[in-house]
Amino acid sequence: MRHRWPACVALPLLIAAVQAGEVLLTEDFENVDLTKLPPNCSVVTPGEVSIAPTDKGKSLRIVHKDAGEAALNIAVDIAKVRGKTVRASALIKCPVPFVPLADKGGFPQLGVLIRSPGGANQLMLCRPNPDVREWQQANVSAPIPMTAEGVTICLRVALVTAEAFFDDLKVEIDGPGGAVAGGQQPNAPSNPNAPPRPPMPESATQAPKKILETDGVLFSSDIAVATRTARHAGATANTYALVGPGAPVAAFDPKQCKGWTLVPAPKGVAGEKLTPDALLVSLPAFLARSNPEIVFLVADTAPRQLSRDERFNWEDLARLCLRMGAVPVLTIPPAFGPLDELRREIVFASEQVKCPMFDPNPAATLTPRIAQSLELVARHICDRKPGGSDGAKTKKEAQDE
After folding, report:
1. Are the C-beta atoms of 236 and 292 separated by less than 8 Å?
2. Is 370 a residue whose pLDDT tops 50?
3. Taking the mean position of all CA atoms in its chain, how far away is CA 176?
4. Cα-flanking dihedrals φ and ψ of residue 331, to 5°?
């Protein structure tokens, strides 16, 4: 018997009145007619989108080739989600192997598109593991700023040749979002008469693009703008810390990071037996006490049993850093080995938060890439002035305002 979500509604009823914390929409595609969609739904490249039989009954099928995209887009009522966190989930199945373009966002995906004033759009997305042929759970968490002009749920295949099936779509709202997305200042005043925020500096909007596969570092202007926007005040300039199950890092030489102070990480926030969910408990006190400007969240160096919430724990760790004034930089374990699944989970987390990331492998590249990450963050996120002055306010400066 086919599983159905409780209180399942069809596409014409997607915009139902809901309260925070309730289900906004569900869809199992059993009764969907793509030629008779309601106004809030649209299809991109209709010839590649269909409803097809699967082992789950009927599912949305997208067969896309090369550039561009094919998609089913569902707009939700922006008035119901402003200031709340939208959580979307769906099952995705890719029965045929495909080659993803990770650096360009090329893969089958579940996404939440946030449209903001001035064209400052942000796409929060989740992609399936390209090596798995069975149904996979995709989850996206997207805090919606009060300034958002629209929110769209996207089921799509972009920029690659791939076949994907989508099913059991569910979208719910969680109430006030703890993190901020799409260009809203985390502590922006609600007073409409408040002076406008200063424009985003060119150091962020013109940041260089670094690709993980070729540079060993992930960075871009989108990352710089999103991180600078979401980060709260409170950091101590020119300080950084290495925390997580992969810290301390024996191969790292802090002497090569001149002008920076390494904040020692106590046992509670570093060590090989530390799990991400345990770090979520111990990290806030460390950040409050030390106020590091940059925090490297160092992944495991030995295999372990991953939790069901693995990617969300890493995502929450990165957002926690931002809320406490630190710029998170995620580090990932080696690809194509026993830690490859963990690597994928952390890459997903980085895509959700839009934060920098780097690969510390091989060991000879570790110190240079940490130094490069420090420089990129300082210059393009913290807007470091010549001579080492930081654009971010300290806690004392923020309190004096």
Report:
1. yes
2. yes
3. 18
4. -110, 145
Q: What is residue 385's predicted lDDT score, i.e. its pLDDT?
A: 60
Spatial distance between the Cα atoms of 266 and 247, rounded to a whole number of angstroms: 10
User: Has residue 363 got a pLDDT over 90?
Assistant: no
User: Do 72 and 43 form a contact (C-beta atoms < 8 A)?
Assistant: yes
As a whole number, the mean pLDDT across the chain is 83
- Whether the bond between 117 and the residue before it is cis, its omega within 30 degrees of 0, is no
Model-wide pTM > 0.85 = no
Q: What is the pLDDT of residues 113-139, one digit of tens each?
A: 998 887 667 888 888 888 889 998 888
Instruction: Print burial letters for 223-248: b (CB count within 10 Å at least 16), e (below 16).
Output: bbbbbbbbbbebbbbbbbbbbbbbbe
Q: What angle do CA 44, 46, 47 make, to 5 degrees?
A: 135
Higher pLDDT, 175 or 299: 299
Dig out the tokens for 339 from the structure.
Answer: 């830690």
In contact, 178 and 124? CB cutoff 8 Å: no
CB 230 within 8 A of CB 322: yes
Mean predicted confidence (pLDDT) in 201-206: 90
**pLDDT tens per residue, range 301-320:** 999 988 877 888 899 899 99
Assigned token pair, 53: 């039989």
Instruction: For residue 269, give the DSSP letter.
Output: G
In sign, the C-alpha dihedral spanning 209, 213, 215, 219 is: positive
At residue 121, the pLDDT reads 79
> For residue 7, which of 23, 31, 21 has the smallest C-alpha distance?
23
**Radius of gyration for the chain, computed over Cα atoms and rounded to the nearest angstrom:** 21
The Cα–Cα gap between 393 and 401 comes to: 10
Q: How far apart are CA 217 and CA 372, in angstroms?
A: 8
Residue 284's Cβ-count burial label (10 Å; 0-12, 13-18, 19+) is middle
Q: Which among 309, 303, 291, 196 is positioned nearest to 239, based on CA atoms?
A: 291
Cβ proximity of 157 and 201 under 8 Å: no
First to last CA, the chain: 61
d(CA 147, CA 168): 30
Angle subtended at Cα 213 by Cα 68 and Cα 205, rounded to the nearest 5 degrees: 65
